[in-house]
């Protein structure tokens, strides 16, 4: 175990797996696996969460394949293309095969982590019901409170397990009510992302971690410029009309310091989240002015519109160095990983509908 650090316990909420698209091969999950293998971290999961992850895999695959099949059914020219990639994107996938593959990956992740599974069948419902009727976290104030029962029982099981062993446990979830409920349990330490936990572990060697963060932030101008260029170069379109969009970042605000995913004596992998304010120039045929002329849809008016939007850019930065020598510190690679591709941008009339 690195630096003689004490082993710490972590549990991961279903929301985290869903938010990452069940990306068990991602760098964050790979780093977690390394910490599980070294004994630096121990994974604890409830049987409720495991069943819920399996169910959410099935739901996600089903929803995404509906969109894929809609695309395939509308395709015409692509069917006549001789390019192999066109044929591949038009291949209809069997949802059962995809679901099994992702469930197998999840189960393999649990096995490799040697996860401790907490059975919840013997839990009493008293404390959970009290929170339900009081509207306390993780229950909200809506009529959908019944859907939070699984979270409540999972949190209760994790708290009881931790208290019996007199230890603290990191519980990772971006769900605000889930975090609030964990925060009320002295044994549970809520974290919003896996990266927060990885950064915590990376700080075992505080001097090395501080050196890496400081030297990385000295190069924030180059990092921001690379992220800005990658973001602006992607393809964007008008979400609610037939048209294209071009974006330009007006302001880019970096974090006070980056998070570290991996670190050793010669290299590190960091993540920075930059807040981007950008303008988007939209060019589209206005559907409100369209009419049919002899069976052909004719647009009377073409519009150009500029809108202001915000986006968070997640950037991975690979760095290398020798013996914490600032002169040896260099950036090896900068990659914009989120958003992972271009996206549709709504016109001002449709923006925030129906909430505006």
Short structural description:
The chain is of the alpha/beta class and 356 residues long. It folds into two domains: 2-200, Rossmann fold, CATH 3.40.50.1010; 205-345, no CATH class.
Q: Can you describe what's shown?
A:
- The protein has 356 residues and is an alpha/beta fold.
- It folds into 2 domains: 2-200, 5'-nuclease (Rossmann fold, 3-Layer(aba) Sandwich); 205-345, no CATH class.
- It has 11 helices and 14 strands.
- Strands 6, 7, 8, 9, 12, 13 and 14 form a 7-stranded mixed beta sheet that branches.
- It is globular.
- The model is unreliable at 128-134 (pLDDT under 50).
Roughly how many Å apart are the termini? 53 Å
Order of helices and strands: EHHEHHHEHHEHEHHHEEEEEEEEE
CATH class division of the largest domain: Alpha Beta
Number of strands: 14
Based on secondary structure, the structural category is alpha/beta
Shape: globular
**CATH homologous superfamily of the largest domain, by name?**
5'-nuclease
Main β-sheet description: 7 strands, mixed
State the domain count. Answer: 2
Stated plainly, the CATH topology of the largest domain is called Rossmann fold
Can you name the CATH architecture of the largest domain? 3-Layer(aba) Sandwich
Helix content: 25-40%
């Amino acid at each position: 175990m690195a630096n003689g650090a004490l082993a710490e316990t972590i549990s991961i909420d279903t929301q985290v797996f869903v938010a990452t698209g069940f990306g068990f091969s991602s760098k964050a999950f790979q780093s977690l696996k390394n910490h599980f293998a070294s004994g630096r971290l121990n994974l604890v999961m409830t049987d409720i969460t495991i069943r819920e992850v399996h169910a959410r895999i099935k739901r996600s695959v089903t929803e995404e394949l509906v969109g894929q099949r809609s695309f395939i059914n509308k395709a015409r020219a692509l069917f006549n293309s001789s390019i192999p990639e066109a044929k591949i994107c038009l291949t209809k996938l069997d949802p059962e095969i995809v679901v099994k593959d992702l469930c197998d990956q999840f189960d393999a992740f649990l096995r490799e982590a040697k996860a401790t599974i907490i059975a919840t069948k013997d839990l009493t419902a008293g404390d959970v019901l009290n929170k339900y009727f009081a509207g306390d976290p993780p229950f909200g104030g809506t009529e959908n409170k019944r859907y939070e029962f699984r979270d409540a029982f999972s949190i209760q099981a994790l708290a009881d397990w931790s208290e019996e062993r007199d230890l603290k446990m990191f519980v990772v979830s971006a769900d605000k009510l889930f975090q609030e409920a964990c925060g009320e349990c002295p044994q549970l330490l809520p974290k919003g992302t896996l990266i927060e936990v990885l950064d915590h572990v990376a700080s075992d060697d505080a001097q090395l971690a501080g050196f890496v963060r400081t030297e990385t932030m000295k190069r924030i101008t180059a990092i921001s410029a690379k992220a800005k260029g990658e973001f602006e170069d992607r393809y964007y379109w008008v979400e609610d009309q037939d048209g294209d969009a071009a974006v330009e970042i007006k302001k880019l605000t970096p974090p006070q310091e980056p998070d570290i995913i991996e670190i050793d004596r010669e290299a590190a992998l960091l993540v920075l989240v930059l807040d981007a304010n950008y303008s988007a120039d939209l060019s589209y045929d206005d559907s409100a002015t369209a009419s049919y002329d002899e069976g052909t849809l004719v647009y009377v008016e073409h519009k150009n519109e500029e809108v202001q939007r915000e986006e968070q850019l997640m950037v991975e930065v690979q760095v290398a160095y020798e013996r914490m020598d600032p002169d040896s510190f260099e950036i090896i690679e900068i990659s914009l990983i989120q958003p992972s591709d271009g996206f549709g941008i709504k016109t001002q009339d449709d923006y925030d509908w129906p909430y505006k």
